[in-house]
Specification:
The complex is a heterodimer of chains A (289) and B (310).
Chain A (H helix, E strand, L loop, with lengths): L2 H12 L6 H12 L5 H9 L2 H15 L9 H8 L1 H14 L13 H21 L4 H13 L4 H7 L1 H14 L3 H9 L3 H11 L4 H9 L11 H17 L14 H6 L6 H19 L5
Helix pairs in contact in A: 1-9, 1-12, 2-3, 2-6, 4-5, 4-6, 5-6, 7-8, 7-14, 7-16, 8-13, 8-14, 9-10, 10-11, 12-13, 13-14
Chain B lengths: L1 E7 L20 E6 L2 E5 L5 H12 L6 E5 L23 E6 L8 H6 L17 E6 L4 E5 L2 E7 L7 E7 L2 E6 L20 H22 L4 E5 L4 H8 L7 H10 L4 E5 L7 H15 L6 E4 L5 E5 L4
Parallel strand pairs in B: 3-4, 4-5, 5-6, 10-11, 11-12, 12-13
Antiparallel strand pairs in B: 1-2, 1-14, 2-3, 7-8, 8-9, 9-10
């Protein structure tokens, strides 16, 4: 299929994109409990890129046209109210029932989830360590959590083509996004941007989704977030925390660290915190090792 | 002429009976007249009486034409729609505006599906009136004849809009169903789930959202505000239900320099005697301390905002 047909397939898939299987049972548990605390609700949404995306979409499409964008989940919960967010989460979780579970998919969603979470948590800790203002930290997390969102429609709406794509990347030892471009004429950053448009994202989150592999040519206003996500993405791949299909990741050059005014060693310094946060998430979701 | 008439002021469920004669038992419905324009806010059970009046008094001057603004789609705000007689009269033109939920269903489906055989003997397709549905968000709209409406999201368990109508320099604001925005995240560092970033962001968001509400209310000549509870009731288990206390409504009106506030969305368990007692209590408590005139919303009464007496 040509890139434009693939884009259409991605677009058609977005409205029925389900929560990730790994978070679904916890979403149902938390949201079906009338006494759920806002913190638990926040926690469970933060652990699911699809849910996080849909909540932010709702707040932004409901409240704002152009200009200001809400990227904070805390603010979204306060503005929309706990019940609206809970019901939205439930409706997203329930879509899972309609997904064709028989099809073979290239990407394992459990690995994808761990990778996404790791990039979000790493981006957050890097931002904290670099002294970013506390109210902006959540945007780094959201951008990291969502950076690979374009892989979900590729993996599900173009399942057989995506198996071939990953085989090509492995065979030629190239980064996955280059293989995607060759097989699908559409890489996950572009597919992610289609998702971002549909979810009414602009600003840092949309740019991190669209430019985390092409950050060197990025000249927009959110370079700090985009570059942090690119480094966090490399870190997650290098450490093998989760798996998002990219066995041969592109390595950010020293100038990227320079632009962020950070030493490479900062990654080692936050490693324990990142692992601890992922462990906490696993305990919360009652996952095994 | 710029007037507001209340056809239903009760919250949650119609409450007919001897205890609700004075303030009324019908659920939300307001009629606004601005020159020749007719605007209806909400289609609670009160809209039945309004529809009958329109047929009786307006129809002889020509077909009925109105903009209906739904604050939100909770049942007490839409339940009267099937009994709004003008929808059965050929020539009636209605533009029905309102917010929808996060669900993908359209406003037409949410409201119009009350007119299906399982609920009602007439189907939506069989209606004689021409009805256009428009889903709206935060916006400003020109309604013609110099009447404009500005909308603002409120704080209720489903998306809910407040409306500010402006006509010839005067304004009528509706602010129901709503409660004050608040930080729902722990702000006490001793709390085991305390998170500094959330505590800060939560406080900031609540403060900013309430400030936006006050800006929306600012200088209104007449405001209809949710006040289902006393502050004591609100703080004893009603927080998060999406309704305000009398105290919040009055303080918000004072802070926004509103001239007159009608306390609205009476709790279904509140009798006429209790509402009268509360009205006297709050009027007495605020006397000399604020420029805001306040009273309980009464079904069947008209308030004149501009022009000669109706």
């Amino acid at each position: 299929m040509a890139g434009s047909d693939n884009k259409k397939a991605v677009r058609d898939y977005i409205s029925r994109m389900p929560s990730l299987p790994v978070t679904v049972s916890k979403v149902l548990e938390v949201c079906n409990n009338p006494k759920t605390s806002p913190i638990d609700l926040d926690k469970v949404i933060q652990l699911d890129p699809v849910l996080m995306g849909r909540v932010l979409k709702l707040i932004n499409s409901a409240y704002y046209g152009l200009g200001t964008q809400v990227t904070s989940l805390a603010r979204a919960i306060i503005m929309l109210g706990i019940n609206t967010v809970k019901n939205l989460a439930l409706s997203t979780a329930v879509i899972d029932r309609f997904v064709d579970k028989g099809a073979f998919h290239a990407l394992n969603m459990d690995g994808f989830w761990r990778h996404s979470l790791c990039v979000g948590v790493t981006a957050k800790h890097l931002a904290k360590r670099r002294g970013v203002e506390p109210t902006l930290i959540e945007e780094y997390f959201a951008a990291g959590l969502l950076h690979d969102i374009g892989k979900i429609p590729l993996n599900n709406a173009l399942a057989s083509e995506y198996v071939r794509t990953m085989a090509l990347a492995d065979h030629e030892r190239i980064p996955l996004f280059l293989a995607e471009k060759r097989v699908l004429d559409l890489d996950h950053s572009e597919a992610g941007f289609v998702v971002a448009e549909s979810w009414k994202f602009s600003g840092a989150i949309a740019d991190a989704i669209a430019f985390h592999h092409t950050h060197e040519s990025y000249h927009g206003d959110h370079g700090d977030v985009v570059r942090t996500v690119a480094i966090a993405n490399y870190f997650a791949n290098r450490e093998g925390i989760g798996f998002s299909g990219n066995r041969y990741p592109d390595k950010p050059g020293p100038e990227v660290y320079g632009l962020l005014d950070m030493e490479k060693s900062m990654l080692e310094e936050i490693e324990d915190q990142v692992q601890a946060d992922i462990e906490k998430a696993k305990v919360f979701l009652k996952l095994g090792a | 002429m710029f007037t507001l008439t209340i056809w239903g002021s009760r919250g949650s469920m119609p409450t007919p009976g001897p205890d609700t004669v004075l303030f009324g038992g019908n659920t939300a419905c307001l009629e606004i007249r601005a020159g020749k324009k007719l605007v209806i806010i909400d289609a609670g059970s009160g809209i039945r009486g309004l529809g009958d009046k329109l047929v009786r008094e307006d129809l002889k001057h020509g077909p009925i034409e109105a903009d209906i603004f739904i604050t939100h789609t909770h049942w007490d705000h839409i339940m009267g729609f099937p009994m709004f007689t003008p929808i059965y009269i050929p020539g009636t033109k209605l533009r029905l505006h309102g917010p929808i939920t996060y669900e993908e269903d359209s406003l037409e489906k949410v409201i119009g599906s009350q007119l299906s055989y399982r609920y009602w003997p007439v189907r939506q397709d069989e209606l004689a009136a021409k009805i256009e549905y428009e889903q709206i968000k935060e916006t400003t709209m020109e309604l013609g004849e110099g009447l404009t409406v500005k909308t603002k999201y409120l704080n209720h368990p489903v998306l809910c809009l407040g409306y500010r109508f402006e006509y010839e320099g005067k304004s009528i604001v509706t602010a129901y169903d709503t409660e004050p925005f608040r930080n729902v995240f722990p702000s006490d560092p001793a709390d085991p789930s305390y998170d500094e970033a959330y505590a800060i962001e939560g406080d900031k968001a609540a403060l900013e959202e309430n400030e936006k509400l006050f800006q929306f209310y600012r200088g209104a000549d007449l405001m209809v505000h949710d006040s289902q509870y006393t502050a004591k009731e609100y703080h004893s288990g009603k927080m998060g239900f999406g309704h305000s206390s009398y105290e919040f409504a009055i303080n918000a009106a004072h802070r926004a320099s509103v001239k007159q506030v009608l306390l609205f969305h009476h709790d279904p368990n509140r009798s006429d005697a209790e509402l009268q007692e509360l009205e006297l209590f709050y009027q007495g408590k605020t006397e000399g301390r604020t420029g805001v005139r306040l009273e309980m919303a009464r079904e069947g009464r008209t308030w004149q905002v501009q022009g000669d007496s109706a």
